[in-house]
Amino acid sequence: MQRRISLIPQPQQLTAADGELDLSILSAIAAAPELHPLAWLLSDSLNRGTGLRLPVVQSTPGDPGDGRVLRLALEGDRPEDFTTAAEAYRLDVTPAGVDLTAAHPAGIARGIATLRQLLPADALREAPAADPVLPLVGIVDEPRLRWRGVMLDVVRHFQPKDFVLKMIDRAWLHRLNVVHLHLTDDQGWRFEVPSRPKLTEIGSWRAETKVGHARDEESGYEPTPHGGFFSVSDLREIASYARERHIMIVPEVNLPGHARAVLAAYPELGAGQNKAVCPTFGVFEEVLEPTQAALDFALEAYTAIAEVFEGPFVHIGGDEVPMAQWESSPIARELMEREGMEDVRGVQAWFTRAFCDHLTKMGKRVIGWDEILDGGAPAEAAVQVWRTQAYVEKALEAGHEVLVSPQTHVYFDHYESDDPSEPLRIHGLTPIEKVAAWEPAPDGIDETRILGVQCQLWSEYLPNPRDVEYAAFPRLAVFAEVAWTNPDVRQADPVLDRLPVHLERLHAMGIGYRPLEGPKPWQQGGTGRYRRFDWDFTEPEAE
Known about the structure:
The chain has 543 residues and is of the alpha/beta class. The protein has helices at 36-50, 105-118, 161-173, 198-201, 232-244, 260-265, 292-308, 324-327, 330-339, 345-361, 389-397, 407-410, 432-436, 465-472, 475-484, 487-492, 495-508, and strands at 13-22, 28-31, 56-58, 69-74, 89-94, 97-102, 133-141, 147-153, 178-182, 184-185, 188-189, 205-206, 209-210, 221-222, 226-227, 248-252, 313-315, 365-369, 382-385, 402-404, 450-457. It is globular.
């Protein structure tokens, strides 16, 4: 019996024929030299999952090669990078072989991801377990949105380099094209800046970590130091790994707030009393003082990270910046008077403008959380909206490109259900059905003005890779469909109907996903870390 073709995301056009192609009858993967890195990635993937080893041979445009081949080819005028046209592809599996064509290498990368899903689920294992067979299909595909991302928070709980690489692979399989790394916050500084050694010597470690929810005053602390950071070499390896798969890494250095780890290392840069790296979670009052020394530090950090990751975007954070220390700071008051600022929110705008000017000179584009709108954001900055739909409209009205990431639908640190045995989450309720029904461009919003969408994996209550996987999957797979597939195609073949087959792929990859039927029994050595804690939470309103 022929396998059901069940892909996530669903391609825009898919035509199936009876029968299968046994890849073992093929002689090679034929590709132009520019595509050889992708061809070898495909060859290695086939070898790991099926035992089949197809050599990569050179082909030229219009030359089918000798014998039956899996052909990767660039055809047509090359579109600009980071456009939906750059990720469009055509995949044809016939009795004579496989043809994967695109106008840009990024399209070939997306087509390879689809081809991997067409194989039996066991072909995604790290040991040969599947027959190398593909169903006969014709696929014409192009993403709906330019930016389709997932954010990984490696600060609140440090996640090792090997896991970051795995998440890049999983983004690739789901045809996402952005992995956003949240690298700095109150609870740690996670990358090396050679000119500032105390950031990793002091700022990357905290002495203890809150057990249970931050608002649970009775749960106490785990007195084990927690920390870690990525060396420059680590970051370059992450960048190279992502580049090979045509995944854009967007690094985030979150300033001028969320600065406890910075100020533990360099207290002279702050506007208040010195404190240690924060052992608990929430929003804290410590901010950078608006001095030239603090600004020079920030620009050093942005330079260091921008030189490693060659992508066009650098995230400056800018969320949840308390104003209390600036309100009582003579230095901030002097700045406000000198610059003619109407209120203290102008101090944050001063930092944002300086960050943007510096990164623009480096050939980068700035993106920040929607709070950078307060006090005015530079026109060239993109805005990532995490609060409510009203902020999408506010950013669009101000002329900014918008990345839509509302916590109500794509924050996967929220509860998966209202079952009391779910693992501890920060708050909220985002079941998989809610993700599947989400429309990122609702009535009244011009979709062409939306940069894209992104889901978030904040790690306050995700202490290790196993916990991140459980919170992410399968919600991340459903999100990927919302980001890639046009609404009419989604409605014709609902993603939740295809999800059980997709879970077989996640299982083969060793991903510890949450089952559809409910939460797994979950324990953590009796620490109480996973004890459910509910508190009243009100969605923030736009000003």
